[in-house]
Amino acid sequence: MEIKTGYLYHIKDEFFDLIKDKNLMANHKNGGKRPAYFALRENDILWFIPLSSQIEKYQKIIELKEKKYGRCVTIIIRNIIGKKHAILLQNAFPTLEKYIDHVHIVNNSYAKVSYNLEKEITRNFKIMLNLKKRGINLFFTDVDKIKEEIIESIKIYH
After folding, report:
1. Which of 45, 67, 72, 95 is the most buried (most CB within 10 A)?
2. Are 10 and 101 a contacting pair, CB within 8 Å?
């Protein structure tokens, strides 16, 4: 399966069984599946950014960050496939194609964000990566440890 930036995907349980990071989004919450994830390819790395329907919760966090820092690049609230979602860049994580379960489907079509939203998410994500390189980590997940565990899993299974 070709993973494309801008589309929404679901991740296999196998990934979450392998990676023990308490900051990854909860699985099977309230009887549902894990959230859908926005896919982003950054060089050779696949990144996945969870979506949440808890708009009020994240709107308050955005307002606090904007008041404190003047802006918020870690959370974006926008309409995606006809419904408001919080896009949680702060909860992004890298993974491998083998851990992708399936493309999120809505009305018999692959779910994809708009071109403008894709660019906004990508821009904010690059800001976060650049800040991390300068020692300012805005990611909740331990992205470096996850990368190491993924690389180690490749060595074990190959």
Report:
1. 95
2. yes
| DSSP classification of residue 104 | -
Q: Please report the DSSP string for 47-100 in residue order.
A: EEEEEES-HHHHHHHHHHHHHHHS--SSEEEEEETTEEEEEEGGG-EEE-GGGE
CA distance 1 to 3: 6
Helices and strands counted in the chain (H then E)? 4, 9
Query: What does pTM read for this prediction?
Result: 0.88
Residue with tokens 């190491």: 148
**What is d(CA 15, CA 42) in angstroms, rounded to the nearest whole number?**
19
pLDDT in tens, 7-49: 999 998 888 888 888 878 765 554 556 688 999 987 777 899 9
What tokens appear for 112 in the block? 């994809």
Which structural domains are found in the chain, ordered by start?
Answer: 8-157 (3.10.129.130)
Instruction: Tell me which residue has tokens 């060089």.
Output: 43
